[in-house]
Input
Amino acid sequence: MIKWAIIFAIIGLIAGAVGFTGMAGAAMGIAQFLFWTAIIIAVILFVLGFTVFKKITR
Output
């Protein structure tokens, strides 16, 4: 998911440099959404990993 966020960010930067501001804004919005979604999922899995690990080792 981070890979797609980076791809959309690059598309947004290129579109902004060329002058397609509407498309650049949309691509950056998608990139932000994907980035924060990936971070939230990673944190949730990190916390679940620690709680499940503690239950398994006891």
Q: What stands out?
A: The mean pLDDT is 89. The CA atoms of residues 5 and 42 lie 14 Å apart. The first helix runs from residue 2 to 18. The two ends are 34 Å apart (CA to CA).
